[in-house]
Every structure is written in structure tokens, then in C-alpha cells.
Amino acid sequence: MSFTYERIVRFQDTDAAGVVYFANVLAICHEAYEASLMAAEIDLKEFFSGSKIAVPIVHADVDFFRPMYCGDRLSIQLTPQGSSDSEFEISYEIRSDHDRPACRAHTRHVCISLDSRSRHPLPSNLNSWLKSFS
């Protein structure tokens, strides 16, 4: 079961042409990611700053199919999938006011130890999150 995040495009998300600026799509995806973590009862403060591990994004890509404009209502469907004991990927599909997708994005995350900067197994709360929304 995937996770769905609803959001309205804000003026600050757009460029001089009035459409969502390409880099802001990844920021919107990250909002959805954070919302899914909260929905899984993961404490964001602890997750992003109070832990001995980090889960950086090591790859990201976006495919655009049509523009998104200020005021559009977005529905971001997020589907995570584990790819190893220390890595997961998230697929995003963003729709706005229409049936067909406006864009699709993908991120790959690797869990590391902050002390050694080497791979670290995903913590149990992230494994539970993966199971909840895969």
C-alpha cells in the first residue's frame, strides 16, 4: 500500500514562466517523504538530527509529462521499496487536477553510520515504514 500526500502548488514553487521549477519537484517529494515518516510515527527531529545514523539521498531523477501551475492541487503517491539491508528507493507519482501524471520521480537512499560514514543496516522503524507503504 502506497502513501498519498496532498498539497497545493505555491507561488514560491514556480519559476518566471509560472510553472513549478524543476528542482522544487524534489522538494515537494521530500515533503511527501517526511509526511510518510510522520504517518509511520517516526519522530522527525530524532530521525534527521538526533540519531547516530543518516539516510542521505544518493540518486534522484524526475520525468516531466506536463506543467504544474500555482494553485494546482497535487496528489503525490509515494511507494518505498527496500533494495538491501542498508538501502531503499522511493517512487513518486505526482498528479494535479487531472487523471494522468504530471511527473514521476525516484530517489535512492543509503543508511550510513555518522561516525564511520560507512553503510549501516536500516533501523527497525525504517523497516516498519517500508513494510507499511511498500
Main features:
single chain, 134 residues, Thiol Ester Dehydrase, Chain A, alpha+beta, two-stranded antiparallel ribbon
Description:
- It is a single chain.
- The chain is an alpha+beta fold.
- The chain has one domain: Hotdog Thioesterase (Thiol Ester Dehydrase, Chain A, Roll).
- It is 25% helix and 37% strand.
- The strands form 2 sheets. It has a 5-stranded antiparallel β-sheet with strand order 1-4-5-6-3. It has a two-stranded antiparallel ribbon with strand order 2-7.
- The protein is elongated.
Order of helices and strands: EHHEEEEEEH
Shape: elongated
Largest sheet: 5 strands, antiparallel
CATH topology tier name: Thiol Ester Dehydrase, Chain A
Task: Sum this structure up briefly.
By secondary structure, the chain is α+β, with helices and mostly antiparallel strands. The protein has helices spanning 22-39, 44-49, 124-133, and strands at 3-8, 53-54, 57-64, 73-84, 87-96, 101-110, 112-113.
List the helices and strands and how they pair.
Blueprint: E1 3-8, H1 22-39, H2 44-49, E2 53-54, E3 57-64, E4 73-84, E5 87-96, E6 101-110, E7 112-113, H3 124-133
Antiparallel strand pairs: 1-4, 2-7, 3-6, 4-5, 5-6
